[in-house]
Structure formats: C-alpha cells, structure tokens
Amino acid sequence: MSDVLRLEAISKTYGKGGPAPVAVLDGLDLTVARGEVVALVAPSGAGKSTLLHIAGLLDTPDGGRVLVNGRDMTGLPDRARTEARRRELGFVYQFHHLLPEFSAAENIVLPQLAEGVAPRAAGARAAELLDRVGLSHRAHHRPAQLSGGEQQRVAFCRALANQPALLLADEPTGNLDPATSDRVFDMLMSLVRDTGLSALIATHNHQLAGRMDRVIRLGAAG
Ligand SMILES: Nc1ncnc2c1ncn2[C@@H]1O[C@H](COP(=O)(O)OP(=O)(O)OP(=O)(O)O)[C@@H](O)[C@H]1O
C-alpha cells in the first residue's frame, strides 16, 4: 500500500515542563493514501493547525513518526526537511499569502524557478494552471487587482506549481462568502482530481467535508 502521508502515534504538548502545559495531540494516527482526498474537521482549538504544521514538516512532534512518501522525516536535519517540504508538499492557507508585487503568473512561476525549472517551462505550467481555474485573462494582474476568490484560485495554482505529492490546506475557502466558497472549492476539487493529487484539507464546513473521500474528526465535537 502506498501512503503519501503517514502519521504514527503523534503527540504534541505546548509548554511542556512549564506551569501550564497544553496537551494537544496524544497518540494520533492518520494516513492519506495516494490519490485520496481527506477532510480534517475539528472544533476550534482541537489541534488542526498543530497537526497540519506537523504533517507539513513546519513543526516537530514530541513523539511519533511522520512519513512522507514512505520516508521517515522524524529527526531529519532542518535542511532536509525544508527540501522535502519544497519538493513534496503544497500548501494553501485561509489567506492567500501571494507576493503582492508580482503578477498572478509570476507568483506561480517563482516557486518553479526556485526548484530549477527553466523559465519557459515554468511560464507554460503557470499558464496551464491559470487556464484550469479560469483565470488566463488575469495572468498579468497583481493580487490586489484580483477578487478574494480569484486570489485563492491563484494560490491553488501556486501550491500545485511544483507537482507536489500531497496538498495540505487549512480552511482554503474559509475567507470567502458562502457562494464564492462553494465555487472556488469546486475548482480546487477538480484541480486535485484531474491531477490525481492527494490532499488533506481542514475545513469547518461539513458540507464541503462530505464531498471528500474520507472525513477525519479531531477532538470531541467536530
Ligand atoms: N505555541 C503555543 N503555546 C501554547 N499553546 C498553544 C500554542 N499553539 C497552540 N496552542 C494551543 O494548542 C491548542 C491547539 O491549537 P491549534 O492552533 O492547533 O488549534 P486549531 O484546532 O487549529 O484551532 P483553530 O481552528 O481555532 O485555528 C489550542 O488550545 C491552543 O491554545
């Protein structure tokens, strides 16, 4: 079986050894299989961001193992983790975090150049991705010239630019009004499905969660 992501017995406590430790994750197991789209539903404070940071190699657990594409990332030096993050993972956040001084296309080209892709090929990939989300006509606009939904669609393209093995998304449409959220989420899902991408997508929206292959609930409610 090939799991793109495997979290084994993950535990995390903030402020360990201090006066007010907060145990957030305690022996958590989670897998995302190749091609699978998994929803992560959690009440506020249950540890969703903590989990995504650990899965995204941005934070380390106190105990347990993180495997990406079968490779144990636990205990790797920072540099190797950063490299794995850039090569294998794509991120989408609630807010787009696009570079304001660059155009939509440039925001998708830049991460590819950082990975050594030739400028012409990077440009072609950006154009193809923008076309898929219906934004070819906005390629040369800067983020401030785009609507919230358009900005988020560009952020999806950027996350997919280097063809990651796994997409991690934290409330990717949480910042948008409900109608726009539905439309933009549809685009994300078809982009993910068309490219056979695996994804772990945190959302408070149960309707959106229900459209994914599997729902994982964290914490008591959810
Ligand atoms: N650096 C930290 N030090 C101490 N406690 C922390 C720290 N970061 C997070 N926490 C606590 O850990 C718990 C989980 O935080 P986390 O950000 O993972 O929650 P979340 O599920 O993403 O919440 P939300 O949906 O509201 O963003 C919360 O109770 C939070 O207060």
From TrEMBL:
Alphabetized SUPFAM superfamilies for the sequence: P-loop containing nucleoside triphosphate hydrolases
Which CDD domains does the protein's record reference?
ABC_MJ0796_LolCDE_FtsE
Plastid as a keyword? no
Cellular component annotations (GO), alphabetically ordered: membrane protein complex; plasma membrane
Q: Which InterPro entries does the entry mention?
A: AAA+_ATPase, ABC_transporter-like_ATP-bd, ABC_transporter-like_CS, ABC_transpr_LolD-like, MacB-like_ATP-bd, P-loop_NTPase
Pfam families (UniProt xref): ABC_tran
Keyword vocabulary terms for this entry? ATP-binding, Cell inner membrane, Cell membrane, Lipoprotein, Membrane, Nucleotide-binding, Transport
Q: Which domain of life, per UniProt?
A: Bacteria
Methyltransferase keyword on record = no
Q: Which residues cross the membrane?
A: none
Query: PROSITE patterns attached here?
Result: ABC_TRANSPORTER_1, ABC_TRANSPORTER_2
In the record, biological process GO terms are: lipoprotein localization to outer membrane; protein localization to outer membrane
Domain ABC transporter, by residue range, is 5-221
**What molecular function does GO assign, one term?**
ATP binding
Q: Which family does it belong to?
A: Belongs to the ABC transporter superfamily. Macrolide exporter (TC 3.A.1.122) family.
Q: Spell out the protein name for this chain.
A: Lipoprotein-releasing system ATP-binding protein
Q: What is the lineage of its organism?
A: Bacteria, Pseudomonadati, Pseudomonadota, Alphaproteobacteria, Rhodobacterales
